[in-house]
Amino acid sequence: MRAVEQIRAFGYNRCVNSEIALFVFIPFCKIKCTYCDFNAYANLARVMEPYADAVAQEISDCRLQIADLTAKSLYFGGGTPSLVPVAQIEKILRACESRFAFAPGIEITLEANPATADETKLRAYRALGINRLSIGVQSFDDATLRRLNRGHTVADAIEMFELARRAGFDNINLDFIFGLPLQTLADWRATLRRAIALAPEHLSLYALKVEEHTGLEHQIARGKYPKPDDDLAADMYELAEEMLDTAGYAQYEISNWTRSVGVGNWKLDVGRQSNIQLPTSNFQSRHNLTYWHNEPYLGFGAGAHSFFERARFWNVLSPVEYIEKITRGESAMADREEINRELEIAETMFLGLRLNEGIAFENFAQRFGEDARVRYAKEIEELKEMGLIEMSDARVWLTPRGRLLSNEVFWRFLP
Questions:
Q1: Is residue 306 part of a domain?
Q2: Would residue 86 count as lying in a domain?
Q3: What count of other Cβ atoms lies within 10 Å of the Cβ of residue 231?
């Protein structure tokens, strides 16, 4: 069966023009942040080059039925991809180009941390065709950055943003975390004001989650920092919604905002007057929309995950073991999970509800051949009574309160 027919048979009717997203995981970091539980490693520069060779080989050796698929996005995530030499990023990108057809205007994102790339390097990335930069700022407060072991300063973050602009990047995301140790509402307001003053095209704001076996978990257990305050985090989230709406940013997902279509000149008092012309383009992350629409994607590299042909599968975590397996001509896959229809429907519901637009009933019916309003009549009615969702004839979506209590919504759709 041809790949396009397979995807249609498995119910991926929302996959526009049979497109797929590609993800490349880069596991290297300068230092490990205290809150991070990602598959990321410091002090492994010695294997950067063989790792790039292995990823390029894994892509070239891909045996999945992809002949009729077009890559709509390519995302270099990590870790810290901007730590890697340009030649190694280029090697991986060229392998993707050789193995996959690229859609016109493909979105190619590279994650970057401040103080890991100069203007020359950023210009080189841009020349390769990388057209979206995602900078991990996390906070515009130096004391907070030191507590997180971020390895950069506020000045470093602002400098990287300005260097990226000079290098030609006109689609930049800034990442932030709120609810951090000892962070006050005033601290968060100050961070938001500085972020808005820079006028990035996209902002991602995530509530802190203390992960097991991280440095931060141990610090909290020892009493160095208090446990996160959920009420304060909720206040921070609502403050962000208010400030970003006033500044001309549109929220399109629980944690993501983009410049509104059609926004013109605006001023904001940030200690100095700013007259900033906002473009009328839509800067939503096309790559991340793939995840929220529960559409197919392929991941390459150590620990990278894929979702394809109704299965989820992922690679071994260790970069060294990954390199060894690929070099020996073996599969780097660690495990595989078959996704049955019930789980796929459930995941499509709660992932789609992360989006402000919610779930369109027509799209759900086209994909699964049934009416979500009938299948989830009980759950929808209960959630409406709780004030967590709203519904029209065409779709269902989270209320502002529902976004704050989203887990209360999502678990109800699990099979």
A1: no
A2: yes
A3: 7
